[in-house]
Design goal:
Layout lengths: L1 H22 L17 H4 L3 E3 L6 H12 L5 E3 L3 H13 L6 E5 L3 H4 L2 E3 L11 E8 L2 H4 L1 H9 L4 H12 L4 H11 L1 H8 L9 E6 L3 H16 L3 E6 L2 H10 L4 E7 L4 H7 L3 E18 L14
Parallel strand pairs: 1-2, 6-7
Antiparallel strand pairs: 3-9, 4-9, 5-8, 5-9
Helix pairs in contact: 8-9, 8-11, 9-10, 9-11
The chain binds 1,1-dimethyl-prolinium.
Length: 302
Amino acid sequence: MFKNKWKRLAVTAVAVLSLTVVGCSTTEAPGETGEAGEQSIGEQLDYKITGIDAGAGVVQAAERAVEDYELDFTVQTSSGAAMTQALSDAIANEEPIVVTGWSPHWKFAKYDLKYLEDPKGSFGEAENIHTIARLGLEKDIPNAYEILDNFNWTSDDMESVMLKVNDGAKVEDVARKWIEDNADRVSEWTEGIDPVDGDPIKLAYVAWDTEIASTNVIGLVLEDMGYDVTLTQVEAGPMWAAVASGDVDAIVAAWLPGTHADYMEDYADQVVDLGPNLENAKIGLVVPAYMEDVNSIEDLAK
Ligand code: PBE
C-alpha cells in the first residue's frame, strides 16, 4: 500500500500539474515536488523523525544524525509509548515512518522492521546496559550491592519479559514468572549472599520498555532477598541526577559507552559503574521493512 499511495500521489500531482498549466498559475516552487510530482523521502515523512522523551540518548543521537547527514528533519519528542503507538498506526496503514529505535525491544518481534545504516556513526557502535550505584552503596548496603553487581542477563531474556508486558500482562507478574522460570540464573546472582530483614533500597528507572523490564526483575529479586524495595519512575536526566546525589541507591538503566555518554561524563566522579548487566544492545533509526527505498540514513536526504 505504501507503493499504491505513492502512485496515487503521483497521479494527483500530475492532475494538479495539468490544471496549473491551463490556469497559468502555480503555488509551488519548481522542483519542490521532484520529477513528475514524485515526493521526496523527506516529503513523504513530513520531514519528521518520531522520537521519544527529550532526555533519551537515542533522541540526542538522532539530533546528531540530522546534523551529520545534513537532513531537513525535525526529531519530534514524545514518549516511548507514543513512539510505539505511532509506529503501530503507521504500519496498520502501510505508511512511511522513521522512529528512534533500540534493541532489545519487542517491536522487532512484532513487526518487520530494519535499522537504517549509519555510515557516519551518529548512533555509535554496540552498546551495553550498565548497573550504576551511588557512592557508598557497597559500604552501606553490601548485600544488595553484591546482588546488583552480579545481575546480568541477555537480550533474549529481556525481550521475553518485554513481549509479555506488551501483550498486556502486568510487569510484576511477568517478572515473577521470569524469576520462577529462571531460578538457576537468579541463584547465580544471589548465591552465598545473606538475606536481610526489610532494609530499604531505592532504584530509579525511566519508562522505556527495556528499563521497565529490567528494573522490575531485579527489584523483585531484591525483594525476595528481604529488601524493602522502592522503584521510582522518572525522566532520564533526573534518574542520573538521583543516583549521583544518592537520592536513589542504583539504576540498571545506563546505556554505555555512547547513549548516555553525556550523563556519565557529568557524573563520573559521583557514581560507581558496576559494569554491564546486558551486552550487545543497540540504538538507531528504525523503519518498517516495506520502506524498500530507505536503507541508510543517507537515503532520508533523497
Ligand atoms: N533508550 C532505551 C534509552 C536507553 C534505554 C535507548 C530509549 C535512551 O535512548 O536513552
